[in-house]
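Quick one: structure for this chain?
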Amino acid sequence: MPDTPGPLMPLPPPSTRAFRDALGMFATGVTIVTARAADGSLVGLTANSFNSVSLSPPLVLWSLSRAAGSMATFASGSHYAINVLGADQRALAERFAAKDVDRWTGVAFSEGAGGAPLLDGAVAVFECFNRSQYEEGDHVIFVGEVERCQHRSGASPLLYHGGQFYTEHPL
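Got it. Here's what it folds into:
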């Protein structure tokens, strides 16, 4: 009688460190996601969990830790903006990733849909209606319907890979 495979046994999950290190090998762009809270205050954070979902309708996604202090604003707000950073905006990315700092002092922006800040100098900006949210693991995945977008042709992006920032270098 030929050997027949038994049921597949799940592999043990990787350690958190091994998983983070493996994810770090995927180069991403760097964004700052911004919104205006119900009390009028500004909210923003650095994120590299941004991706396109659909061209018709135009949809994008990003994710946020459930433990984030800004979760209530993003979960309940009607709009947010995804600001894709340029190669010259590393300091801004680091500021919006830091805790316990005033992220907005001296930051130039204009007001977009729903009051979401559109950062001056971004290489692309997506103004999004907060269409849907999906709770998965320790994060919430936000799907935004893009109402307006703009970009700067020829601008070099800010990239993130292996825990470090990079700029684009043509091959």
